[in-house]
Design a protein that fits this description.
Layout: H1 2-33, H2 38-60, H3 72-96, H4 99-106, H5 109-120, H6 128-144, H7 154-178, H8 186-204, H9 232-254, H10 260-266, H11 269-281, H12 288-308
Helix pairs in contact: 1-9, 1-11, 2-3, 2-8, 2-9, 3-7, 3-8, 4-7, 4-11, 5-6, 5-7, 5-12, 6-12
């Protein structure tokens, strides 16, 4: 009885995390459509999240601030590829694609991870990795409606695919960290990921050139309730706290009650929730064929996860 209760607590926490992540897709798009540059919005998000997580670590676990020599390359790669590029490319995709389509394409990352383990690392995987790749590719073709010459901007599709590859790097580096003799805990790992992503953006686009005046405006009135005609600073604050830090905490807390296989399946609700939320608040809708494609993509992801879990 206690085990079942713990399982439901885990499911509830993870679903709440997926729900808040899904809302963040529409909130971020509202900010982007109002004129904010994707790179600047990525910089604002990762830096804000880093500051909040840093404060928590300083207060509760200051020893986790220490970076060992062997960790530097992985943490730098994790911050730049796994965090900064994933955020940036996803935001670029949001400019041109519906929220659900951008997320569905990004969620193909586990397929690339399974292929990496199979061919680059030559680790044992089930033969279903080929089925996963085929199903996911067919799903992508349906979502993009390739027989019409692509129904969306190609730059958006390429950016979403790039976000999927960057998210694959995120997963692979995390997997490498978890296999160290003394693996870093998820909270400090994420904090340093945001930290090095913030440092990357400071080098690329220093804070003294940040367009703070862009945050003084409001979102487009045409977006309608509840995201239309809202102060951009408020939406940005929501994106950092409720769209990044809070869902991260919910997912981490849920992992105390769930196995990784259970969490990976529940995580697939995020693009489905994002599609529903974007339909309600942004009037974005997908056709029947595209929804079928989305279902095929998620099926391919499940198959890819199963092929990798044999390791």
């Amino acid at each position: 009885m206690a085990a079942r209760r713990s399982l439901w607590v885990g499911y509830t926490l993870y679903l709440l995390g997926a729900f808040t992540f899904a809302i963040n897709g529409s909130v971020s798009k509202a900010i982007l459509l109002s004129g904010m540059d994707a790179a600047r919005l990525s910089q604002l998000r990762v830096t804000g999240a880093f500051v909040i997580l840093l404060a928590f670590i300083v207060i509760s676990r200051p020893r986790r601030l220490v970076i060992h020599r062997s960790e530097w390359p992985f943490l730098i790669a994790y911050g730049i590829l796994g965090v900064a590029m994933t955020q940036y490319l996803f935001f670029v995709a949001l400019r041109y694609l519906p929220v659900g389509v951008a997320l569905l394409i990004e969620f193909t990352a586990p397929v690339f991870v399974a292929l990496w383990f199979r061919f680059a690392l030559r680790e044992p995987t089930r033969r279903t990795v080929w089925l996963a790749l085929t199903v996911a590719l067919v799903g992508l073709a349906l979502v993009a409606e390739v027989w019409r010459g692509f129904s969306f901007e190609v730059i958006g599709l390429l950016a979403a695919l790039g976000a999927a590859l960057a998210l694959s790097a995120h997963y692979l580096i995390t997997d490498r960290q978890m296999r160290l003799p003394e693996p870093r805990d998820p909270v400090s790992l994420t904090m340093w990921g945001f930290g090095f992503a913030s440092l990357f953006w400071v080098v690329v686009q220093p804070w003294w050139s940040f367009p703070w005046s862009d945050l003084s405006g409001t979102s487009l009135e045409d977006l309608g309730a509840p995201l239309g005609d809202q102060p951009l600073w408020g939406l940005s604050l929501w994106m950092i706290v409720m769209g990044t830090v809070v869902p991260f905490w919910l997912v981490v807390a849920s992992m105390r009650h769930l196995r990784a296989s259970q969490a990976s399946v529940i995580g697939l609700t995020e693009p489905l929730l994002a599609i529903l939320i974007a339909w309600l608040v942004l009037s974005e809708s997908l056709g029947i064929v595209q929804l079928i494609g989305g279902a095929l993509i998620l099926t391919g992801v499940v198959l890819a996860e199963r092929s990798r879990q044999q390791r």
